[in-house]
Write a structure and sequence with these properties.
It is built from 14 helices and 19 strands. It is α/β, with parallel strands linked by helices. The chain has 2 domains: about 1-235 and about 405-465, FAD/NAD(P)-binding domain (3-Layer(bba) Sandwich); about 240-400, Alpha-Beta Complex (Flavocytochrome C3, Chain A, domain 1). Helix 1 packs parallel to helix 14, helix 4 (about 80-95) crosses helix 14 and helix 12 crosses helix 13. The two termini are about 30 Å apart.
């Protein structure tokens, strides 16, 4: 079989590539490992919010770039992150042109564009018939109308290389192995969060203790094949995810929502010794990454008080709120009238917890949280003193949605060779690409927007670079 473009993976990124390529008169084939027409993938399970660095997709590019730099840290934003800012509004317009429907999901800026119909404000996983699922089904139908092919139950196993260029894929379908040739190959099969070997190598000493918060279908096949072909990998040590109650590992009603982030970023996160080990003010994604790095990722505990529980935890701007949704879904909130009793109930040394809380409270009152060890940032989230009984705690776990690292790409989604230059005929998009998100701050810029933007860029580059078509 021979096609113009071979796309590995049928999530939002892959379908964006294939549909845009078909719009340009090319003939794509999408290879999807899932066998059901509503195959699992992170895009289908997503919350449905389309934003870049929590900015409106139609915000001025300079404003988005400033927001990106605030997430990544001064001077750490990449050229590809800047592409996200420049291309955001066009990506939104393209999605709407495909028939994608949006609603306004809330008062916060990043909630302006939510795939419709939205998921309910309840705990647990509810994806069938929701915006992301409807969007993928619509893009699948549009691909068929445009003459593209989606092959299910087909797993790419190896790139076919010729004179240093990618010219096809060896794939497996129903036990049979075949070669599919194409003038361009696009890796769009998501991250490597379901590959325990890679997760142990790059993310956590105990990846089995992390919660697969997404579809758990990202096996890292594409990046492994690309690396074998000489591609450079980048940013492999970070992931997008959140803190959840530890019971989510056994209770499906507690994932992917509600998340602990809103409580944790204004309170304390301690380890089994009752000590702080992370800067809570860096945000929930950063916290999840640092918890995953612990020798025992299940030793993290979020400690807070009555004021946080009845205030921040009950704020439904970040649905679903923790209070009372978490408890109603089967989660456990440990409660005590004093810190000594709370320490006993969560199994940490009472004197250590008392000292941790006292030092933290004093620093908050004095505006001296930068002098804590580790420091406590206050730029994004204001810390609350922990002083109003009853005191509470929730045992936490790190939930991994997708890994942020992957194949290094240029601004046109072309795969970069580890020795310099690009690998002819090879592209990477969405969560299979690296270098856009992550970094020291575990910067999260938006998985859905990254999927669409990198996908469109790849299709247009293929049309221009390999097949002589324009990108209009």
């Amino acid at each position: 079989m021979s096609k113009d473009i071979i796309v590995i993976g049928g999530g939002l990124a892959g379908l964006a590539v294939a549909n845009r390529a078909a719009e340009l008169g090319l003939h794509p084939i999408v290879l999807e490992q899932g066998g059901d027409p509503q195959y699992f993938c992170n895009s289908r399970f997503a919350g449905g919010l389309l934003h870049v660095a929590f900015k409106d997709m139609r915000a001025p590019p300079d404003d988005i770039i400033a927001a990106i730099e605030a997430q990544t840290g001064p001077g750490d934003a990449t050229a590809n992150a800047a592409v996200m800012a420049r291309e955001a509004e066009r990506a939104l317009a393209w999605m709407r042109a495909q028939g994608t429907k949006f609603i306004k999901g809330g008062s916060l800026e990043f909630m302006r564009w939510v795939l419709a119909p939205p998921r309910p404000r309840t705990a647990g996983l509810d994806w069938k018939g929701r915006g992301p699922d409807v969007t993928l089904r619509r893009l699948t139908a549009r691909l068929a109308e445009r003459g593209g092919v989606l092959r299910l139950a087909t797993r790419a196993r190896e790139l076919i290389m010729q004179d240093g260029a990618a010219v096809g894929v060896v794939a497996q379908c129903d036990g049979a192995v075949e070669s599919i040739l194409g003038r361009a190959t696009v890796i769009a099969d998501g991250g490597f969060q379901a590959n325990m070997e890679l997760m142990r190598r790059f993310i956590s000493p105990r990846p089995e203790s992390l919660l697969q918060r997404g579809a758990a279908t990202g096996r890292g096949d594409g990046l492994t094949m690309a690396q074998a072909a000489g591609a450079r990998l980048i940013g492999m040590d970070r992931f997008y995810g959140h803190l959840l109650g530890r019971e989510a590992l056994e209770n499906e009603r507690l994932w992917p929502y509600p998340i602990l982030d809103a409580i944790a970023v204004v309170s304390l996160v301690v380890n089994g010794a009752g000590s702080r080990f992370v800067d809570e003010g860096m945000g929930g994604v950063y916290l999840a990454n640092e918890v995953a790095r612990l020798d025992d990722p299940l030793s993290a505990i979020v400690v807070f008080d009555e004021a946080v529980w009845t205030g921040v935890a009950a704020d439904n701007r970040y649905p679903p709120c923790m209070n009372p949704v978490f408890v109603k879904a089967g989660g456990t909130v440990i409660e005590a009238g004093g810190l000594g009793e709370l320490a006993r109930r969560i199994g940490v040394p009472a004197d250590a917890l008392a000292r941790t809380v006292a030092d933290y409270n004093a620093a908050v009152r004095d505006g001296a949280t930068a002098h804590l060890s580790p420091p406590r940032a206050t730029g994004r989230f204001q810390p609350h003193v922990i002083e109003t009984p009853p005191f509470r705690a929730i045992r936490a776990c790190a939930g991994v949605t997708y890994t942020m690292g992957g194949v290094a790409i240029d601004e046109h989604s072309r795969a970069l060779h580890r020795d310099g230059g690009v690998i002819a005929g090879l592209y990477a998009v969405g969560s299979a690409s690296g270098g856009i998100e992550g970094g020291p701050n575990a910067a999260y810029l938006g998985g859905l927007s990254k999927a669409v933007i990198t996908g469109l860029r790849a299709a247009e580059a293929i049309a221009t670079d390999h097949l002589g078509h324009g990108s209009s």
